[in-house]
Design a protein that fits this description.
Elements: H1 3-22, H2 37-46, E1 51-54, E2 60-62, E3 68-71, E4 86-94, E5 98-106, H3 108-119, H4 129-145
Parallel strand pairs: 3-5
Antiparallel strand pairs: 1-2, 1-4, 2-3, 4-5
């Protein structure tokens, strides 16, 4: 970690706290500091299109472009047993294959929760494109999640 990066993190946190105060959103801490699920759900909501579902051959199929990708060999999830059914990734890297880097296992139910929120109008800035894609993806995975 670098001092400059940590300073930037503090600045962003202060900015978010100020915005929450301005719109009267109550900021409260997680009562269980060891529980990372709320943080994972928040990341999943923001990076919804950077998710992928496992295929029978061990690869993954991306949500947004429906392309086959694989977990990068340097990832901690590379040889996880059993492999996660759903993954959120930060970036795709093309070498001999297309690899996902900075991966995090997620629950398929979180994707359905996000999809239901988009139907209620909480994610409305893209002319309905996200809602349409969410619905298509949710239909394709509903049977495997539930």
């Amino acid at each position: 970690m670098q001092f400059k990066s940590l300073g930037r993190v503090r600045d962003v946190r202060d900015q978010l706290a100020g915005l929450c105060e301005r719109v009267e959103v109550v900021v409260k801490s997680n009562p269980n500091p060891g529980d990372i699920v709320p943080i994972q759900k928040a990341i999943c909501s923001g990076y919804f299109f950077n998710t992928a579902r496992i295929q029978k051959d061990g690869g993954y199929r991306t949500t947004k472009s429906n392309q086959t990708v694989y977990i990068h060999p340097t990832s901690a999830l590379f040889q996880a047993q059993p492999p996660p059914r759903f993954i959120l990734y930060y970036e795709l890297v093309l070498t001999s294959k297309e690899f996902m880097r900075q991966c995090m296992p997620i629950e398929g139910v979180w994707l359905l929760e996000r999809e239901s929120r988009s139907r209620s109008g909480r994610f409305d800035g893209d002319g309905g494109q996200a809602r349409l894609t969410d619905t298509i993806f949710a239909r394709s995975m509903r049977s495997s999640v539930l």
